[in-house]
Amino acid sequence: MENKNPNILVDASTKDDAAVYRINESTCLVFTVDFFPPNVDDPFTYGQISASNSMSDIYAMGGDPLIGLNIAAFPKSFPGEVINKILIGAKEKCDEAGLSIVGGHTIYDEEPKYGLAVIGTIDCDAIRKNNTAQEEDLLILTKPLGTGIITKSIKNNSKNAENALNESINSMTMLNKKASEIIKNYDVNACVDITGFGLLGHLYNMISQSNKNCDLKINNIPLFENLDSIIDTRNLTSGTMGNIKFLDKKLVNLKNIDEKMKAIICDAQTSGGLLISIPPKFANEIILKLNQNGHKKASIIGKVTKKKKFENKMINFIN
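Predicted structure:
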């Protein structure tokens, strides 16, 4: 349904990261919400990851987190000290972001869940949408892939995943704040954060909504260390399997991709990086600045190309 309110500049119609509402000529509010069950054992770390993930949509749109509301569900028997550690971990990341938690709502549920509803501010003339990628743009990914694969392997007691877990936790708890600040200095054409739909799902949405095609350089995609040895393509998360099922129908050439690589690019991420569509002249400079500011594996992973006739081949997979 089309919104009639002229102050709503971005809504769900383009499947963007967050909604944007204009409050005056120069300032807009940006809104988002996210929450999920624990994906790590340590409650403090889970709180950090969930808060970082919840604020990521604001950064992807080009905004700054301002205030937030806790959204939580816990079993009646859930220990109070565990809840406290989750909330303290979340507050630490919110403090780092400059976000004030001003309240929230909690219900009882058999499976614990935690996240935030976040409001941020944004310059109305500097909104980074997901549907405005331009032909010849280069695509930059700021964080490596594999968080879903690694956390699933840990739950299955895979010893191979233990070393990769620390790297993935460092990535998931890293705010996208610095990356967002860096690209504010450049003419970014489109941006999206990589979360539940995986790299390929979010890329597909960006490219289709922008009415473009793209080349995706498989070998350039940054991964967590030893990810190849961890993947069990017979035991993926339900989110990743759903992504593969959906994208297999949308992209006929996805069936030709190696099963492990297909699992990686469709892996449902938690608190993933930003996917940025940027004119080529800025790309190398942005990569250098990202590398210098904690995003050690930020990489150019593809190129936006002209829209072609065949809808189901809009993403060209190349080595």
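Summary: Residues 86 and 219 are 37 Å apart (CA to CA).
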